[in-house]
Amino acid sequence: MNFDFVNLYLVKPCKIDDECYMRAMHAKKILDNAKVFSTFKDAIKNLDYLVATSSIESQSEKKHLRSAFSLEEFTKKIFEIEGKVGLVFGREDYGLFNEEIAICDIMLRIPSSESYSSLNLSHAVSIVLYAIYIKKMSTSKEKRKMGRIEKEKLYEFFSQLLDDINYPEHKKENTNLMFRRIMGRAIPSKWEYHTLMGVLSKTLEKFNKK
Q1: What's the whole-model pTM score?
Q2: Superfamily assignment of 9-138 in CATH?
Q3: CB count, 10 Å around CB of 191?
Q4: pLDDT digits over 173-182, tens only?
């Protein structure tokens, strides 16, 4: 609430008891309106763009799962996104699972000391929300229009293209992840989306005629 965020989604949380309300102080209505889900996939069904957070990033350009976006880069891009953006924070003890990060469009990492890179969950949330709030105060919104359904269709076409060109099976998962991360960073406009879809569609059409 300090930073104008009101929608809280919780996946299999602990009991929201009197201690939770005591700590919430004047933000009790966020707890009252929090949506509780039994699975991560249920929680993200109506979200258009997902941002995973983790203190562990990949040092190799070939490993795309934990290829991290900096917080500064992310706050420059977030207001170009149309639709619902989900900021995904993991468990206090061991963060997000790899399969949860893989579903997200990008992974975000807060710069911190190599000697102790992992932040307390509440601190990580505060830093990310603060950075977004400050950017919101200093910039105007310029929204682009590629939503969740269009995005998934683009990923589906790309995956189909890999199948049609007999791309090595053991490389497909990582290459699909790479494409998802590229699109996540680029945040294409609707015009760019239709151009890409046109190219992929024509390519698939040509392969299927052979």
Answers
A1: 0.66
A2: SPOUT methyltransferase, trefoil knot domain (3.40.1280.10)
A3: 11
A4: 999 999 988 8
